[in-house]
Write a sequence for this structure.
């Protein structure tokens, strides 16, 4: 298998909802393992996600989990997830689902570099950037 870079997102107890939402957006196979699956004691973590992985038909892999017991959750804005390509229909479909009812900081529009680009933050606090490459000609 070739090396690949995968975003791995941390959540404060809502990883299951987030990963299921992303499955609805992108499709694919979602695998979730809970802390209870690995024998973690304590009922407050039994159903929390220890590791989640979504593999999509487009070849995306997104991973996420609830923060581990005993570790402080520190959300931040030091990351975003970027989707790019030239399949306008596919990317616009992702944009519609990711931005619907959420905060749009840059509307999905043609930009000065010629591509169509937008940026939004979903209900889980994840910033998404969508760039649709356009042919210059």
């Amino acid at each position: 298998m070739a090396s690949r870079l995968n975003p791995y997102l941390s959540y404060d107890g809502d990883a299951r909802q987030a990963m299921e939402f992303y499955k609805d957006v992108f499709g694919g196979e979602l695998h979730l393992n809970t802390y209870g699956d690995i024998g973690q004691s304590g009922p407050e973590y039994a159903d929390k996600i220890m590791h989640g992985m979504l593999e999509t038909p487009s070849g995306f892999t997104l991973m996420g989990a609830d923060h581990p017991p005993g570790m402080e959750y520190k959300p931040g804005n030091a990351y975003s997830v970027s989707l790019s390509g030239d399949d306008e229909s596919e990317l616009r479909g992702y944009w519609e689902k990711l931005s619907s009812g959420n905060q749009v900081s840059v509307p999905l529009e043609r930009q000065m570099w010629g591509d169509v680009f937008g940026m939004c933050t979903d209900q889980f606090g994840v910033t998404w950037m969508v760039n649709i490459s356009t042919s210059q000609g």
Q: What stands out?
A: The chain has two helices and eight strands. The radius of gyration is 17 Å.
